[in-house]
Design goal:
Number of helices: 7
Helix content: 40-55%
Radius of gyration: 15 Å
Structural class: alpha/beta
Strand content: 15-25%
Order of helices and strands: HHEEEEEHHEHEHH
Strand order of the largest sheet: 1-4-5-6-7
Length: about 180
């Protein structure tokens, strides 16, 4: 069994590296999704969360592929804590403009589309190596009036929250 600390190390390496070729950006993102899925699966086994669904897959040769997203609005990962469905959208993109063009519209859309099919409370988390206030404000404004909260936090902050808080503290944080 792999320890959480081992996944944290690998996630941190992916978060900090830009050594992949540009055409490998989707691989980097897919691997980040996969590692978070594995981390959340471990947290489920420790009963810190109740369930986790990754919408990506393991492809040929064991290489992860990202969740499809697109017009169906399939989120990267959904995990459930005390009946609250948390839509987790991840990216490895750092620059403000690139991050916004890739994620600014799709993140709130994925959360809103997922929310339409769920009777439980839905909360969004957008996590990236860097969070830009302009991008956060724009994504949150799209969700304004829907009653859906969106937390925009760095990958490092997300890792700290997921690994340091118990179930009740996690629910309290998400409900803020």
């Amino acid at each position: 069994s792999i320890k959480i600390s081992e996944y944290l190390t690998v996630i941190d390496m992916i978060n900090k590296t830009n050594k992949f070729e540009e055409n490998k950006a989707s691989l980097r993102g897919a691997y980040l999704e996969y590692l978070f899925y594995k981390l959340l699966t471990l947290l489920k086994s420790y009963e810190k969360i109740d369930d986790v669904i990754w919408n990506g897959k393991i492809g040929k040769y064991g290489i992860p592929t990202s969740a499809p997203g697109g017009v169906t609005g399939t989120p990267d990962i959904v995990f459930i804590v005390n009946g609250i469905h948390i839509v987790l959208e991840l990216t490895t993109i750092k620059p403000k403009a690139l991050q916004f063009s890739a994620e600014g519209a799709s993140v709130p859309d994925h959360i809103k589309i997922y929310n339409k099919n769920i009777e439980n409370e839905v909360i969004g988390i957008f996590s990236a190596p860097m969070i830009h206030n302009r991008n956060t404000a724009a994504m949150q404004s799209v969700l304004k009036g829907s009653g859906i909260k969106l937390h925009c936090i760095t990958i490092d902050e997300l890792l700290t929250i997921l690994t340091s808080k118990n179930k009740e503290e996690l629910v309290d944080f998400l409900s803020e």
